[in-house]
Amino acid sequence: MSRQPAVTLLLAALLSGCTLGPDFQRPDSQAPQQWGAVQGEQAASQPLAEPLQQRWWESFHDPRLSALIEQVAARNLDLQMASARLLQSRALRSSVAADQAPSVAAEAGYSRSRNSAEGLNDPSGNAGKSAYNLWQGDLVAGWELDLWGRVRRQVEAADANVAVAENDRNAVLLALLAETAGDYIQLRAVQHTLQITEDNLDLARHSLTLSEQRQAEGVATRLDVAQANAQVAMIEARLPTLQARRDDLINALSLLAAEPPRSLQSTLLAPGELPAPQQRFAIGIPSQLAERRPDIRQAEARLHAATASIGVAKADFYPSIRLSGSAGFQSLQLADFGAWDARRFAFGPQVSLPIFEGGRLTGQLQLREAQQQEAALNYRKVVLGAWHEIDDVLRLYNASQLRRDHLAEAVKQNRIALETAQRQYVEGAVDFLNVLSVQSALLASEEQWIDSSAAVSQALVGLYKALGGGWQAFDLG
Description:
Structural class: alpha+beta
Helix content: 55-70%
CATH superfamily of the largest domain: Outer membrane efflux proteins (OEP)
Radius of gyration: 38 Å
Strand content: 5-15%
Largest sheet: 4 strands, antiparallel
Number of helices: 10
CATH class of the largest domain: Mainly Alpha
Number of strands: 6
CATH architecture of the largest domain: Up-down Bundle
């Protein structure tokens, strides 16, 4: 083999270099084959292992909720701040990647100086007896040969950190979607509770009128009237708290949409239907969870960045070589600047080899390796927590439906009982205390039924959040 091809191969190997440190291997999320089955009695609405609907809030068939979510996604300030952090991360990546290319700069300068007659040579040739002008201009270039992959690993880590910031923004959006839907469901539940309370107040006032009439007829006593008045006052006392809760939820939604207080009252103050889930809904397949949940994707990106940082730390043990050069002109007279005799140049490599660092480089490498171990453990923890969260929400969703259905039966029976008690009171078969007791039971069961209905919808929202669905429907750039 001739000498020239050998030198060429050696030069090519040096220029291409190698990449130190472990290559990132995507961790196995260890997804189960299927979702955990609910034990015991199953409710009517059950999930299906089919592709997850991205715009899951549209399954509630509530145009106001859909419009509100679009408004929050477009204007929320927390989301905008997360987007700004992503832009910062991308800018930092661009700064790091710039080290892969040569740097070129133009320099120019002028100075008027006077040297010492007893010191170094005077460029003016006057032995320090007079001042002189110095004109100079240069084109300076430099490039670090990334022989050990230090810069490549830095760019790799920067790319991973961009993914961290991107999934942080996606996680913020996912939380906002769930919070908006949850607050909206609570608002509708409070409005329904208000309506039921007002209906019960009408019943209580009717009972008061009835007891006053019976007292006038000499059939009832002052005790019946006093008890009826107390019942009216107790129900009236519930209204201010419910109204305040309603206004608080409207303000909470206004804040999510980056609107001033009470700005959404004109559109949300009128009661609407309580969003209810469908009988069947798709929740995707377990193997897709790691692709959807931003926290899992973020943990994976952190592990990637930590793995790449090990290569950077290892490359610091090896010599760094930088090629630099400059070419330009220098003259004492401006008229001579640019002339051929005023030219100058310099070029050559610069080698830096660490010899003694007092353990700094070793400690840095150990730190990066320990950080990678922590990132790997964090990934396992996030994935395990995701499976637990989904399993818990699935059971909660099923249990919430069963509770709602049982409470619906209780409301039905309490309404029958109130009608019967009122009729028997008029007939004189029971005293007024029975009427008050049954009416209180009816009001309590109706409120619990509304709360349970809202809990079913909120559990479904929580399930969609746990599945990591929804943020994909928005193109945030």
